[in-house]
């Protein structure tokens, strides 16, 4: 009881500090995986920003890539009596018990970025992006850009067997279906890293007549594209002009390349998963509307026309 | 003259394996040996093999000496990440190039010293001692880069990764010069023999008056320096320090290069040049797979199959068998001696000699 009062006064205090117009009656616990990548860091930053904007008191727990830490954090959120819990689950299995505990305590749980293998009634909704759709958007951009001209595409895949690699490949191939002018001539894994992206692109260039047979590069993430762009430059070609470059993720560095005219397009995997989650929560608290079981985030396409320099400045500070 | 002949005999299996792989790739991809000048530097698949193989080749130099002392250094991949991160952070801060390089190489030496002290003074088993830094190192690198890829624009630092000297890419120049220099220093002095003695039997070496701990520490410090150089190259190559991926699993490739080079993991006789050829064999396989156009699911299987084949060819047992099958001639026993089995017999003789002088 004491704890609850203390918490309530803390939230009121927070609301006064941030001067938000929103109702400041929510305390939300957020169990983050850890700092595995720049994208993850940006997600944490944006979640905190979104909470602050809405006057939500966010309790943040970093699990350091361990599920047992996440379970501990969720249990402590339940004990503190928070109004809702956000989880970015590190693995898909082993969540049934702790999610049941949250359900018994009548605390809604929202999954961010990844889903879990648990009965669907144990969580309120999952906010994730559609990986197949991302590949599809990238493919559509390429189809529209080459506009019927014959075009040989080389593909830099993500880590072999990982779900982003499988789905982003599938989506891209779906978009290319029926457009026989576009052909994927080479496809290799670049392990999602810059070094491997550069090395594999070097071999693509050698294997395809010094790059003269290649008209476009599709990379499953921006980092590989950044590496590949250097390889294209070192081969004496102009990335973005001689070879079109399209990739996925929208990390800040690709906007720098786009501003320099060396990359053409990127599809955003938004780190703002918490915004839609907080919106769903607010609607639920207001009149009990249940959100759909899956909230798909927008896969926005950025091209050189979207003022890449400004986007870079805006994304730079997010911790990517 | 006989020294050169012995070296040639020692390197024969590695050279044959490398040539066989290069020819195999050439069958698959006819343009493999084509080399042209582009923007004032040599350009071609063969140059790519030497360029991409630079980090493993450099690591293999240090790893050879560590393995010769009967140790192993698992931390080199993580040390690469640390040194790359230090260099990038220093460059971003705006330090002059010399400061950046000295700091990065200095940290590499320090990491090597840490490993060396654990192994030589505290007598911790090398695999455990270096495991500490292998696990912790990547965390340290992440702390330095704050989890992001730290990019920089210093042309001097970038030159190390993608510049060129005498038409050769800078990484190739670095590993060639560094590798040959270390090999010469070790072989033209007594250092090589003393390291071998320490590796074959540390107690016997100590009894014969060799300062074994000093040589052990020296080997790990050199390994740290090699890792720092390799870290600088991979960081400069992509113009950014990627703490999560820089040098990931490269310690295993470096150990493999040493083994493919015909050096025994039990310590003793070693050849740095053979390890360098081993590193090139591994990279040739990697590049060949990329050029072949196989689906990526096959990459690791093909690589493993080729490595097993090379190790089989080098196996002493197999060459003994071959000696039975082959008609008797002077060439057969000579080849058997050039591999690991023959090396350890030679080391035993060296040690006996040392023990005699001690008593």
Automatic annotation (TrEMBL), chain A:
One of its GO terms (cellular component) is cell envelope. Keywords: Signal. Residues 1-23 form the signal peptide. GO terms for molecular function: carbohydrate binding. InterPro entries: Peripla_BP_I, SBP_2_dom, YtfQ_transport. Residues 29-277 form the Periplasmic binding protein domain. It is found in: Cell envelope. It comes from the Bacteria. Pfam families: Peripla_BP_4 (PF13407). SUPFAM superfamilies: Periplasmic binding protein-like I. Coiled coil: none annotated. Belongs to the bacterial solute-binding protein 2 family. This is Sugar ABC transporter substrate-binding protein. The lineage of its organism: Bacteria, Pseudomonadati, Pseudomonadota, Alphaproteobacteria, Hyphomicrobiales.
